[in-house]
Description:
The protein is of the alpha/beta class. The chain folds into two domains: 5-124 and 240-266, 3-Layer(aba) Sandwich (Rossmann fold); 130-236, 2-Layer Sandwich (Dihydrodipicolinate Reductase, domain 2). It has helices at residues 15-26, 48-52, 65-69, 81-94, 107-116, 130-145, 168-180, 185-188, 240-252, 263-266; strands spanning 5-10, 30-36, 61-62, 74-77, 97-100, 121-124, 151-158, 205-211, 217-224, 229-236, 259-261. Helix 2 links the parallel strand 2 and strand 3. Helix 1 (15-26) packs across helix 9 (240-252), helix 4 (81-94) runs parallel beside helix 5 (107-116) and helix 6 runs parallel beside helix 7 (168-180).
Amino acid sequence: MKNRYKITVLGASGRMGSQIIRKVTESSTMDLHFVVEHKEHNWIGQDCGEKLLGRENGVLVTDNLKLALEGAKAVIDFSTPNTSLECIKICEQTETAHIIGTTGFDLAQENEIFERSRKVVVVKAGNMSLGVNLLRSLVEKVSSSLDIDFDIEILEMHHRNKVDAPSGTALMLGEAAAKGKGKSLPELRIAAREGISVGRQKGSIGFASLRGGGVVGEHEVSFTSDSERISIKHEAFSRDIFVNGAIKAALWSKEKKPGLYDMLDVLNLR
């Protein structure tokens, strides 16, 4: 049907990619255009429905990003920083909206995404759930309301196979806390603690990362003074919250002007 929204998904066999594929396949308003895996993956050339749904759906797994993006209205990307940068370059050519859930970018990569978003719609978020983005808004508000006598600590826990630390969500929350102080996160962030350390500087933001089991995601931001502690916490019980957010972002991106957006824009939380 000509009015159905065509979506390409990166990382077909991954935790997020496979669930997004299932959700898009069930939709009455979207079509799965292509799904992508890295070169030499053993799914290349096979029907993704057969691999994930128990039945053929006519959508092949490819390692050809240009082919996968041509004709797609949006691409949902939970891959690796290098793959995301390769993808955004092609999105410029194909005018495909780029929904980035990938985390672990360094500063140079973040800057490249920003520059390329001048020519293509990019929705980028360390976490795409409604709850976490509400938490983000609250953290900024609380941070702006408290003085530097309140130390800020961000604790996150994820499954044993997560490779980046702190998580993209934790860094997003750190950025919100720093913004509440009128600063950038690099200005206030404390380096990872190990061994003997000196006392912390007032106004700084610390992080702690835990890994274990199959934890989907837990984030807690604490504001602690000598006399009281304020904590705000979010726990994810299912990856459906990220899947739903990513698909919402893809649909929201329709007919938007080029630019770098995030889930606060998608959820109208600004």
